[in-house]
Amino acid sequence: AEYMGLSDMFELDLPTVHSIISKMIINEELMASLDQPTQTVVMHRTEPTTQQNLALQLAEKLGSLVENNERVFDQKQGTYGGYFRDQKDGYRKNEGGYLRRGGYRQQERQSNY
User: Residue 36: is it exposed, middle or buried by C-beta count within 10 angstroms (0-12/13-18/19+)?
Assistant: First the structure.
């Protein structure tokens, strides 16, 4: 990238662009070198560090975990979707259930009258 292009893009003067790029190179935030005669920034290819590779692996595994959890949740929505419904042989078939006759809500209504 040329200094002039960066200067126009970020609306900064040339000495400020040069200063910022130099600081980034010194702090190893930018793997590049400055070519003074052509006023360009020469980018260098670098491999990710071990820590960066581990962070990428962790991010991929967490993404897989989230996808699997969503898949399991969706499956349970299909089977557990009737948890509180009036289902014959359902999970709460002999408990009266929240929405069944004789359930908690029904008892609450009767006691208020």
Answer: exposed
Q: What is the pLDDT along the chain (113 residues), one digit of tens a residue?
A: 798 999 999 999 999 999 999 999 999 999 999 999 999 999 999 888 899 999 999 999 999 999 999 999 888 887 554 554 455 555 555 544 444 454 444 444 454 44
Q: Where are the alpha helices (DSSP H) in 1-113?
A: 3-10, 14-26, 50-80, 104-112
Do the strands 32-35 and 40-43 form a parallel or antiparallel pair, or are they unpaired? antiparallel
**pTM exceeding the 0.70 threshold for the entire prediction:** no
Question: Which burial class, exposed, middle or buried, applies to 41 when counting CB atoms under 10 A from its CB (0-12, 13-18, 19+)?
Answer: buried
Say how far apart CA 68 and CA 88 lie, in whole Å.
31
Query: What DSSP element (H or E) covers 4?
Result: helix 3-10
Show the beta-strand stretches assigned E in the chain: 32-35, 40-43
How far is the C-alpha of 7 from the C-alpha of 15, rounded, in Å?
9
